[in-house]
Amino acid sequence: MMRFDVLTIFPEMFRGPFDVSVLKRAVEAGLITIRVHDIRDFATDRHHTTDDYPFGGGAGMVMKAPPIFDAVTYVREEARREGWSGNADVIALTPVGRPFHQRIAQELAKREHLILICGHYEGIDERVHEHLVTEEISIGDYVLTGGELPAMVLVDAVARLVPGVLGAPESLAEESISSGLLEYPQYTRPATYRGWRVPSVLLSGNHQAIARWRRAMALQRTYWRRPDLLLRAVLARSDADPLSEMVVLPEVQ
Ligand code: 9D3
Question: Does a structural domain hold residue 169?
């Protein structure tokens, strides 16, 4: 059982992604629990202020530290009351964080309790990062309006790795032994659609030929679309054939 607590000033954004499909079933099966908390509830002033002007001046607003510290304290206490051990990691979603990666998802899936802080405006008071947060994560080099979508991405990527969440453990096993190549193309019925035929090898029943074709497609796709992956992929000698068939490989001395 794994627990996620999300701290945000836009809790409504989270109704939806967690209420459908795989995550919904995982929650209903008691494999994960996801709580969304409104940081505004922890602001003590009359207007429930969660942001303020940056010291030193400049554009935009900065999220205030006190409501975030109080929200994390509340979540920790609530979790302990409900029998959780108290070993929560506090992750901030921020554009200056460590780029998210499947390896990080696998690491996080071993933890029992994650508290996620979604930033907004120009960012969060640095004292939150220094004294509360244990890990800062970005989901990539593009600019979003806040940390909410990144938090959903992280929960989705981590939750599906929790044992039992995915129906078929084979697909996870395949993932972990995957060679670091992009996947081969998939087809399903009808065998001909608008005159477009499925590659005949897939209808041949020749399992060795099918495996060879899939490996060749994975290699060629990765070469064209993600050559960066090919540099780190686990390759066999025989993989040189489908690659050299279609492209001129650079000579290596
Ligand atoms: C003017 C400097 N901006 C940084 C490029 C400020 C800024 C822009 C957008 C600060 C925060 C945001 C909101 N984004 C996130 O909070 C965020 C994010 C993202 O924008 N891209 C990828 N991953 C993430 S995780 C959190």
Answer: no
